Amino acid sequence: MSYKFKARLSSDWVLEKPSGTVLPLSEVLRLLAAIDATGNISGACKACGLSYRHAWGLLRNAEKEFEVALIETSRRQGSKLTSFAQHLIWANRRVDARLMPTLESMASELQEELERLYPDSTQRLRLHASHGFAVEGLMQLANGMDMFPLELRYRTAIEALASLDRNECDLAGFQVPLGEFEQPILQRYAQWLDPDRHVLIHLAVRNTGMFIKPDNPKRISSVADLCNPDIRFVNRQIGSSTRYLVGLMLQELQIDTARVQGFDSNEFTHMAIAAHIASGMADVGIGVETAAWRCGLAFIPLVKERYFFAVHRDTLGTPNMERLLNLMNGDEYQAYVMQLVGYDASRMGRVQTLEEAFGAEFVASLGR
Predict the structure, then answer these.
(1) 210, 221, 229, 239: least surrounded by Cβ within 10 Å?
(2) Greatest Cα-to-Cα distance within the chain, rounded to the nearest angstrom
(3) Which pLDDT score is estimated for 150?
(4) How confident is the model over 279-285, as a mean pLDDT?
């Protein structure tokens, strides 16, 4: 007997009245997001697969419960969301961005438990990595094909490399900035990298920088501005490489992190950082350019980062790893990553030794 289904977890908002009556909000939020994207209710109904009458019923019922208007309509300008409705959909996007890694990791663990009940299930590749758009696309493409299942658990780079060292995963994702911060970041990873045991698969080069509002009301131009008392910063979670990179940048400028309002905050994805700023809860954050673009934010580039998968040398010749490499070098995935704003896929799928990627001096520093 073989395994024929995939475990998924999802989250939905509900409103609960004192009486215990529950109002689901998922359909309303999807409709509001579609109105925001299309600019009219008819287009939103088509996008959501709803009748015009049903859509208006959802809106009127939600407005009754919230006791506030959700949309404004006019013959010349179509339909647009009120400020209240805009805040609703951005709150929903923040929730999705924040919970998605946790839910996907939990679903992966659940699926692993279920697979143990099916001894004939296909052997899976286990990928541990922080959230990234190229990784997300790889998962979607790989698991959307009859090729093989790929299991993903979201981890920080340190957690992923430690898992690889313990043979708890087959691929560990981590990023390394080019330039002056490369060596400090590499030394942070050093104890988990072994040139005799590990090789690297190059995924992409991506732009990392500051997210700000399009009109830049706080006139933010560099990392030095993070210590201004009227600027609210939103940070990645403790242990993440992006958070560590921010710390290095502040250290270079001799800025104590205690002077940065929001340095101790924690968000788990680039999209959560972007949604935080787009919704007005912060003025600036740092992440990959794709997230800024998707949320309509301005972007100030800071560094380029190479993203790698570390793998054990002896797994390169296995059928599943060869299929993964074929997928990464295929036209469909290459085209997907190339259309991601701020990503360079020109070296994707290239297998490298640690010395080829980081130089003989770094390998010699490992002392192995």
Answers:
(1) 229
(2) 72
(3) 79
(4) 93
Tell me, yes or no, whether 43 and 186 share the same domain.
no
Is 152 found in the same domain as 32? Answer: no
120-130 per-residue burial string, b: 16 or more CB within 10 A, e: under 16: ebeebbbbbbb
> Stretch 37-54: mean pLDDT, rounded?
88
Cα separation, 57 vs 31, in Å, equals: 11
**Helix, strand or coil, per DSSP, at residue 360:** helix
Q: Tell me the percentage of the chain whose pLDDT exceeds 90.
A: 57
Task: Assess whether pLDDT exceeds 90 at residue 106.
Answer: no
Structure tokens at 237: 């979670």
223 lies in which domain range? 123-366
CATH value at residue 65: 1.10.10.10
Question: How many domains are there within the chain?
Answer: 2
Distance CA 111, CA 106 (A): 9
Instruction: Mention every residue, 6+ apart, whose C-beta is less than 8 A from residue 52.
Output: 41, 42, 45
CB 357 within 8 A of CB 200: yes
Q: What is the pLDDT of residue 120?
A: 63
pLDDT at residue 1 in the model: 41
State whether 23 and 127 are in the same domain. no
Alpha-carbon gap, residue 261 to 284, rounded angstroms: 11
Element of type H or E holding 206: strand 198-212
Burial class (CB in 10 A: 0-12, 13-18, 19+), 167: exposed
The single residue listed with the structure tokens 């830049």 is 216
Residue type, 31: L
- 272 with 344, same domain: the answer is yes
Residues 142 and 269 in one domain: yes
The per-residue pLDDT for range 177-221, each reduced to its tens digit, is 999 999 999 999 999 999 999 999 999 999 999 999 999 999 999
8 Å CB contact between 184 and 252:
no
Q: Examine the pLDDT at 339 and tell me if it is beyond 70.
A: yes
The pLDDT of residue 119: 67
Strands (E), 5-161: 14-16, 22-24, 71-74, 78-81, 125-129, 150-154
Domain limit, last residue, from 36, 67, 88: 88
